[in-house]
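Q: I have 197 residues here and want to know how they pack in 3D. Can you give me a structure?
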Amino acid sequence: MVRENMKKTAETSAPLLTEIAERWSPRAYDTTYEVSKEDLTSILEAGRWAPSASNLQPWRFSVVTRGEELHTAIVEQSMSGFNAAWVPNASSVIFISVPAITQDGNAYPIAWFDAGLAAQNMMIQAQALGLATHPISGYNHEVVTELLGLEKDRNSIAAIVLGKSTDPSTLSAPAQEREVAPRTRLSLDEIVLHGLN
């Protein structure tokens, strides 16, 4: 039985937006599906309009699409282990990069936070479009930074795998088990340290 777009709706203590409650990170992707330019543009726009400290917008997005030479090079040279088996099947990968330092030469840790906000915006927008996403950091960041030709002091920090989910049976046995396992999170009591009594 094909279980495309399998739902794993979050069990929550209060109502959430549907796109948040239903977004999860599949690894089984349809190898024939191609994200349209219109949908990709919409997703990137969502990232562009994320909140940003002092409106500096440190994020930059690099999209590599299945079938392109750059996509093949990145997959073959930077993906290893678990991710190497399933990432190539997705339609596209959006690599996110940020500068290591500010224009004044100081450390720039808030850039990572801003990039995370942009990533979440993009994943929620993709969910609203009926697409699947899976954020990853398990790749060789130095290799990707070099292959993308990023400017000096700008580094690839994470990526969003994007496409259409498909039947978990396309995955190897260990990955299948993780694919169909229930979603879990720590309870609010465990993560809210102050303010919710």
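Q: Anything worth noting?
A: The first strand starts at residue 60 and ends at 65. Helices lie at 18-22, 37-48, 69-78, 81-86, 110-128, 141-147, 173-180, 188-191.
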